[in-house]
Design brief:
Structural class: mainly alpha
Mean pLDDT: 85
Number of helices: 5
Shape: elongated
Number of domains: 1
Helix content: 55-70%
Protein name: DUF4870 domain-containing protein
InterPro entries: MamF_MmsF
Pfam families: MamF_MmsF (PF09685)
Organism: Flavobacterium caeni
Membrane topology: Multi-pass membrane protein
Largest sheet: none
Length: 151
């Protein structure tokens, strides 16, 4: 049986990942600080802290892969239509003959990857809220699609 203090601490660890919207890398810093300071008090806190950190690290890895797919493709697609002389001579960048007909299938893959990234962030937000509610009720919560970096 978990005490209210341990349940609240576990919920706070999950909720502290939302600091990423205010502080860069807050979704890693604050859960690690709270978890490392309180992990010896309860196995429930230790378990939920590891799961929250593993989930954030997994999302970072998934986001990195999606960005590595989307950004280079979109970058090349836009800049292949820019005249190199305008770049080197300091002129205004004018997209030459840019139309939707120039958009290839690989650009569609990049747009889909960017869409998955957006969807990943929305799902992350709701899963963090759900995990904190479950933890505050003393229930064991496992994030889906999480790579167990910390065991």
């Amino acid at each position: 049986m978990e005490t209210n203090s341990t349940k609240n601490t576990a919920a706070l660890i999950h909720l502290s990942t939302l600091t990423q919207y205010l502080i860069p890398f807050g979704n890693y810093i604050f859960p690690i600080i709270i978890w490392s300071a309180t992990k010896d008090k309860s196995t429930f806190i230790d378990q939920q802290g590891k799961r929250a950190i593993n989930f954030q690290l997994s999302l970072f890895l998934y986001s990195l892969v999606l960005c590595l797919i989307a950004f280079p493709v979109l970058f090349v697609t836009v800049f292949k239509n820019v005249s190199m002389s305008s770049i080197f001579h300091g002129e205004d960048w004018i997209l030459e003959d840019f139309s939707l007909a120039n958009v290839t299938g690989i650009v569609a893959v990049a747009i889909i990857a960017a869409g998955f990234f957006f969807l990943l962030k929305v799902v992350e937000f709701f899963l963090v809220i759900y995990a904190s509610v479950q933890s505050s009720n003393g229930e064991d919560f496992k994030y889906p699609l999480t790579i167990p970096f910390l065991k």
